[in-house]
Design goal:
- Belongs to the peptidase C56 family. HSP31-like subfamily.
- GO terms for molecular function: glyoxalase III activity.
- It comes from Kitasatospora setae (strain ATCC 33774 / DSM 43861 / JCM 3304 / KCC A-0304 / NBRC 14216 / KM-6054).
- The strands form three sheets. The chain has a seven-stranded mixed beta sheet, sandwiched between helices. A two-stranded antiparallel ribbon has the order 2-3. Strands 8-9 form a two-stranded parallel ribbon.
- It has a single domain, classed as 3-Layer(aba) Sandwich (Rossmann fold), CATH 3.40.50.880.
- Helix 1 packs across helix 2 and helix 1 runs parallel beside helix 8.
- Strand 2 and strand 3 form a beta hairpin.
- The protein is built from eight helices and eleven strands.
- The protein has 236 residues and is an alpha/beta fold.
- The longest helix is centred in the first third of the chain and has 13 residues.
- It is globular, with a radius of gyration of 16 Å.
Length: 236
């Protein structure tokens, strides 16, 4: 019998996103983006470790549970699932104590939180660099590719340069009034670093892409599809 796989879920510890004028917009992780992939991996028998910077319990972005975030039935399912993993969320591992080689795959859910902390976190950046070089599947969703900005090779170059990837688009970011006040936009930064950024033809609809062992999803609606692609790549 095949032993269950091990998946590392790296979640932002930020509870806000600092806007261009210095305002702190309440934020954290996006409910659907954590709940749906976690549910799919757990249903497939995977052992999941949640980790955050400093081992700080992550904050749920309340906007992700509002009526503008999805259909009522979907939001109820997300809320129920997050409730079922309440203990895991309350006691995450500290990211600086994690060895990525202990895991078969690494996954980062989004929300605006990663824009605040993981985008410049050296521990996360080093982990992502090692995960990419390992050849094992690496997945990032929506705003989570902001964490890639902290990754650097020994010579200071960006290990993800030239990789095809997606993330929340400028158009999607600006659909929120506070998004227009962003200090920087993720699509712009990824392009500037040298990513081959791609997006779906229409905003807010599921869109995923893969390049070698890097798997990315554009928005919350891509949560289930990205999880399915990762599981297929892992052969589980």
């Amino acid at each position: 019998m095949t032993a269950p796989g091990r998946a590392l879920f790296v979640v932002s510890a930020a509870d806000h996103w600092t806007l261009r004028d210095g305002t702190r917009h309440p934020s954290g992780f996006w409910g659907e983006e954590l709940a749906v992939p976690h549910r799919e991996f757990a249903a497939a028998g995977w052992r999941i470790t949640l980790a955050t910077p400093g081992g700080t319990p992550p904050t749920l972005d309340r906007l992700s549970m509002s009526r503008t975030a999805g259909l009522p039935g979907t939001l109820r399912e997300v809320a129920a699932y997050l409730g079922s993993i309440r203990d895991e969320l309350a006691h995450p591992a500290a990211l600086d104590g994690i060895d990525p080689d202990d895991f078969d795959t690494v996954f980062y859910p989004g929300g605006h939180g990663p824009m605040e902390d993981l985008s410049h976190d050296p521990v996360s950046g080093a982990l992502l660099t090692r995960a990419l070089r390992s050849g094992r599947p690496l997945g990032l969703l929506c705003h989570a590719p902001a964490a890639l900005l902290a990754a650097r090779d020994a010579d200071g170059s960006w290990p993800f340069a030239g990789y095809r990837m997606t993330a929340l688009s400028n158009t999607e970011e600006k659909l929120n009034s506070f998004g227009r006040k962003a200090a920087w936009l993720l699509e712009d930064r990824l392009r500037a670093e040298g990513a081959h950024y791609v997006k779906g033809r229409l905003p807010l609809l599921p869109f995923t892409t893969a390049d070698r062992n890097l798997y990315t999803g554009q928005n919350p609606a891509s949560s289930g599809r990205l999880a399915a692609h990762l599981l297929a790549a892992l052969g589980r």
